[in-house]
Design a protein that fits this description.
The protein is mainly beta. The chain has 1 helix and 7 strands, in the order αβββββββ.
Length: about 140
């Protein structure tokens, strides 16, 4: 078996072993990207190897919580593990959403190990033109 030489691989492996896998009470962080695309915000989470039924997305008021669990793959009795670098356990991320986002219409999609959430911008937060009345609508106050 060939292995690429990476001077930091052992340091990363050691740090992961010391911190241990994530648990429901102390989950590990998951990497994410967040950006605006047109009239919605998009948040993408990397969750490779996580089954769709092991992902939980909740929103309460303006707090978005994503939890996922990567479970061990069932192995036959005669399998001898040579190398195990993929972390198992629970991963979680919480994001405070702005009041300008419409949390009632969040769409979630999971494809190729990436969970993508699309959060529309609320209508009340979109720019709008205010008309100005002139002319006949003016009245003089006399006293």
């Amino acid at each position: 078996m060939l292995m690429r030489t990476d001077p930091f691989r052992e340091l990363d492996r050691l740090a992961q072993q010391l911190m241990g896998p994530g648990t429901w009470s102390k989950p590990s962080a998951m990497p994410m990207d967040a950006y605006r695309e047109g009239d919605e915000y998009v948040v993408a989470f990397d969750l490779p190897g996580v089954a769709a039924d092991a992902i939980d997305v909740d929103v309460e008021r303006n707090m978005l919580t994503v939890k996922a669990e990567r479970r061990p793959v069932a192995k036959a009795d005669e399998v001898q593990m040579e190398l195990s670098e993929r972390p198992l356990g629970v991963f979680s991320r919480q994001i405070v959403l702005a009041d300008t986002l419409d949390t009632e219409h969040i769409k979630a999609d999971y494809d190729a190990g990436v969970l993508t959430l699309r959060i529309p911008i609320a209508e009340r937060a979109k720019p709008r033109k205010i008309s100005i009345g002139v002319g006949a609508d003016r009245r003089e106050i006399s006293g």
